[in-house]
Design a protein that fits this description.
Elements (H helix, E strand, L loop, with lengths): L3 H6 L7 E4 L3 E5 L7 E7 L14 H17 L7 E5 L14 E5 L18
Antiparallel strand pairs: 1-2, 2-3, 3-5, 4-5
């Protein structure tokens, strides 16, 4: 069974697409965390950053370049933004297809911390 992001890339599932080229597609997140929240995905299925091969380095670099371009096009480049990959369950990855979050358009909190309150820095 294909993943939801593969189906978006193949236009089998609707999405608010903001960018597309031969290797990458970007669309608005359906649960945005900020005024600008775009998901940038490769059309090639790669389950997570853990599955990236050295041959994918150019593709991942292009995803970052697309993020930079979209931040400028969407008016958030000057104010600042985040580019974020989540990997695996503990990293908060919800869809098994790598995706780069572009989040901006407002001042953003840094809320990355363990859910386990017993953990402390050593």
């Amino acid at each position: 069974m294909e993943c939801i992001f593969c189906n978006i890339a193949k236009k089998k599932v609707d999405a608010a697409i903001v960018y597309e080229d031969k290797d990458i597609i970007a669309f608005k997140d359906i649960h945005p965390l900020a005024p600008v929240h775009i998901l940038i995905i490769p059309k090639k299925h790669i389950a997570s950053i853990n599955d990236v091969e050295e041959s994918d380095a150019g593709l991942l670099g292009n995803m970052i370049i697309v993020g930079k371009k979209l931040a400028k096009d969407l008016g958030t480049a000057d104010g600042g933004y985040k580019l974020l990959f989540r990997t695996g369950k503990h990293g908060g990855q919800e869809v098994g297809h790598i995706h780069l979050h572009l989040i901006g358009g407002a001042a953003l909190h840094e809320e990355i911390r363990p859910l386990n309150v017993e953990w402390e820095r050593k």
